[in-house]
């Protein structure tokens, strides 16, 4: 996120930074990084949790830029959870990626 900040003018980051991280250590590092780079506490909102199974930032807010580091090769429950096919992120495809292809989520 901080690299993205360098690429955008300050006026594009009026609302701040939003993110979600599954790894507790990385979550804490991200928050500390914000402080170390003089990002005010009220300008970032980072949640702890699994974005694929439990996205925390679902308030229909639009974003000017999205930066991600996909969770490559993580365990994917796929069709073991039949409710996922109704999730708005996966439903348009009509099928869930198989467990062996979690990177396609």
Describe the overall structure:
Belongs to the N(4)/N(6)-methyltransferase family. Keywords: Hydrolase, Methyltransferase, Restriction system, S-adenosyl-L-methionine, Transferase. It catalyses: a 2'-deoxyadenosine in DNA + S-adenosyl-L-methionine = an N(6)-methyl-2'-deoxyadenosine in DNA + S-adenosyl-L-homocysteine + H(+). Its EC number is 2.1.1.72. One of its GO terms (molecular function) is N-methyltransferase activity. This protein is α+β, with helices and mostly antiparallel strands and 105 residues long. It folds into two domains: 1-69; 70-105, no CATH class. Helix content is 18%, strand content 10%. The chain is built from two helices and two strands; from the N terminus they run H-E-H-E. The chain has helices spanning 2-7, 24-36; strands at residues 17-21, 44-48. Strands 1-2 form a two-stranded parallel ribbon. The longest helix has 13 residues, at 24-36. It is elongated, with a radius of gyration of 16 Å. The model has no long low-confidence stretch (mean pLDDT 79).
List key phrases describing it:
alpha+beta, 10% strand, restriction system, site-specific DNA-methyltransferase (adenine-specific) activity, DNA_Adenine_Mtase, 2 strands, 18% helix, two-stranded parallel sheet, N-methyltransferase activity, 2 domains
Category by helix and strand content: alpha+beta
Helix content: 10-25%
Low-confidence stretches: none
Strand order of the largest sheet: 1-2
Strand content: 5-15%
Strand element count: 2
Counted by DSSP, the helix tally is: 2
- What is the assembly state of the chains in this entry? single chain
Question: Domains counted in the coordinates: how many?
Answer: 2
Radius of gyration: 16 Å
